Amino acid sequence: MLRSTLAQQGSPVYSVAWGPDSDRILYTSGRLLIIKPLQPSAKLLQWKAHDGIILKVDWNSVNDLILSSGEDCKYKVWDSYGRLLYTSSSHDYPVTSVSWSPDGEVFAVGSFNTLRLCDKTGVRAPRTPPHVHCQPLTHLCVLALCVIQCDKPG
Q1: How far apart are CA 91 and CA 108, in angstroms?
Q2: Record: fold of 16-119
Q3: According to the record, where are the WD repeats (predicted)?
């Protein structure tokens, strides 16, 4: 069985995501996002991504874009070089979950009692209500069935 320590941090790692070619790993460390190449001599990339602890990340293999969300009540879209592409307005509660659809065209955002569907630029997807009420979310997988079941206000 293969086990290896890729990094040791001074703060908890709340979320990890594989890079598109499985040659890099994206992980959280407090307010930082860190991309660690699996090659031993390669340099890692890190940047301050949020004003609070980062709770969830996802990295899409089709569009190579990164999602992050955190206790600062925002979600953000990044490119794989750490350049910010979109920042949401502040939500009422921490954004606890983000997840890309497999094709990279849309993603879902979960917060307390709310599920939002957004296009890949970060803007709420057309023809969706401003927010969808669901049970409190702590982890989110984007499946058509889930979106259909939760896509009802109230």
Answers
A1: 14
A2: Lipocalin (2.40.128)
A3: 47-79
